[in-house]
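Dear H.,

Thanks for agreeing to be a second pair of eyes. The structure we're designing against is below in token form, covering all 508 positions.
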């Protein structure tokens, strides 16, 4: 057998291996093939090919493993149990840039499924190798490493701390300053995933100088980058007053308000979320948003959005209004109540309606003037309907009841209270009657109207336990009228009159 023939055997074997891994990598992109590949034992066949002498075979084997692991946690588990991770980590330090990208992809695909699988990636020493990859010259390698680190950090504070301890944060902050857009996006996303768990982790990111670099990118034309920038700033601002103030000090207002009209709905939602996370902390931070024109912008944003995208805007109005009378009045003046009333009537999702009810309660609970602004928007009947409806979620019922109670206790606008006299259950009715009891003693016109509209008759029909709050309120109303008027509208009074007619002996 000649030398040529001997070498041909090796060439054929190499071609077969190359064709095998390429075909498997291609088949792995289609979900319908995954189970068949798994049953055929694809994992154990790919594993030795990760150490193949031919770089193309190595890289393609890693790519195929990544695609399989990405598909579901069973396959990711199989990679962990097959002792493939240490091999990949070793190769991250040794191999060329193409292999590094593929290996980081596998680590990311395993880590994404659960904290346990992410912990397995950490346990095999992947963090140090991935952090070294963040210092590579090739932006693609940096991107793959940042992506894997983000997927490990997103699960919980312990894993996030492990990423921080490996020294990833300063390098990720350097990566967001690189010119490549995709690297900026992925690094921003990883920083967001690290920040979100605890104030301490967010502080590490802030100390690395991230806020200034993120703030510089808020008007970048790339929508996917802006999503990550606003997400990261929100995750920093949400934890404490100090962190929120640091975000605000980066002079993001009023520039970010223009992004509430961005064509990309995720950008809009993340901006609204950032404004909400700032507004919730203190009256001063809320006032800053008001001064920048933020409330009118949020009201417009709620009107232009649908579904879950509305939610942070709705909650922002509630948080701002909760702080003080003046801030609640700023929401009213910006037509916030009318916008919330529209959402309450046309929104199908219970959790969003619950947030609207909560926000309305925060706006109307301060003074009679605030309560009147909510009452005039005609939301009482809708809130009552949502509270009483068996189709409403428990949270929606609870928030509707609380909002009604909060606003009713301040409301002296009797026209809005009247419909509730006829429809409200006793636990709401006591607040309605209580408000009448406050107004009627001092307003003769209101007393007259209360009689002619049937209100006094309705009150006499209510059966209240003696000694209860409702009973006390009814007595307070009755004390505003002459005794014979109260008797006249009491149930059974017409029968009493008829009895008197029968017993009456005319003087002939």
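And this is the sequence the design step returned. I haven't edited it by hand at all.
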């Amino acid at each position: 057998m000649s030398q040529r023939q001997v070498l041909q055997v090796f060439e054929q074997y190499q071609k077969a291996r190359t064709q095998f891994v390429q075909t498997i990598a291609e088949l792995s992109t289609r979900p319908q093939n995954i189970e068949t590949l798994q049953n055929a034992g694809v994992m154990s066949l790919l594993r030795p090919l990760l150490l193949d002498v031919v770089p193309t075979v190595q890289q393609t084997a890693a790519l195929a493993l990544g695609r399989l692991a990405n598909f579901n946690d069973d396959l990711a588990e199989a990679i962990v149990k097959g002792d493939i991770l240490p091999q990949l980590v070793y190769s991250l330090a040794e191999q060329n840039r193409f292999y590094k990208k593929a290996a980081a992809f596998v680590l990311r695909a395993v880590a994404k499924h659960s904290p346990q699988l992410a912990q397995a990636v950490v346990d095999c020493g992947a963090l140090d190798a991935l952090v070294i990859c963040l210092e590579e010259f090739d932006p693609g390698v940096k991107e793959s490493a940042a992506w894997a680190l983000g997927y490990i950090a997103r699960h919980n504070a312990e894993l996030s701390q492990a990423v921080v301890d490996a020294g990833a944060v300063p390098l990720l902050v350097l990566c967001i300053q690189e010119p490549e857009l995709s690297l900026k996006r992925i690094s921003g996303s990883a920083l967001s995933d690290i920040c979100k768990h605890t104030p301490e982790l967010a502080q590490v990111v802030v100390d690395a100088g991230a806020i200034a670099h993120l703030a510089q990118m808020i008007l970048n034309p790339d929508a996917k980058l802006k999503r990550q920038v606003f997400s990261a700033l929100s995750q920093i601002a949400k934890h404490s007053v100090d962190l929120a103030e640091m975000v605000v000090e980066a002079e993001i207002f009023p520039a970010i308000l223009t992004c509430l009209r961005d064509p990309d709905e995720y950008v809009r939602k993340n901006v609204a979320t950032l404004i909400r996370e700032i507004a919730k902390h203190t009256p001063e931070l809320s006032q800053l948003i008001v001064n920048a024109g933020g409330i009118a912008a949020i009201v417009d944003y709620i009107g232009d959005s649908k579904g879950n995208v509305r939610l942070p805007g709705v909650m922002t109005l509630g948080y701002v209004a909760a702080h003080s009378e003046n801030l609640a009045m700023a929401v009213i003046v910006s037509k916030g109540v009318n916008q919330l009333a529209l959402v309450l009537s046309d929104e199908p999702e219970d959790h969003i309606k619950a947030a609207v009810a909560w926000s309305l309660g925060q706006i109307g609970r301060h003074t009679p003037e605030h309560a009147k602004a909510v009452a005039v928007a005609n939301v009482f009947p809708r809130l009552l309907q949502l509270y009483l409806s068996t189709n409403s979620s428990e949270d929606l019922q609870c928030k509707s009841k609380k909002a009604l109670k909060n606003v009713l206790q301040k409301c002296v606008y009797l026209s809005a209270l009247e419909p509730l006299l006829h429809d409200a259950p006793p636990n709401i009715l006591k607040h309605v009657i209580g408000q009448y009891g406050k107004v009627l003693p001092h307003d003769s016109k209101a007393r007259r109207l209360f009689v002619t509209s049937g209100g006094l008759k309705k009150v006499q029909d209510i059966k209240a336990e003696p000694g209860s709050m409702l009973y006390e309120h009814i007595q307070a109303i009755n004390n505003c009228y002459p005794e014979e008027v109260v008797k006249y509208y009491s149930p059974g009074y017409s029968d009493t009159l008829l009895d008197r007619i029968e017993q009456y002996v005319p003087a002939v």
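Two observations from my side: The two ends are 150 Å apart (CA to CA). The chain has a mean pLDDT of 88.

Warmly,
E.
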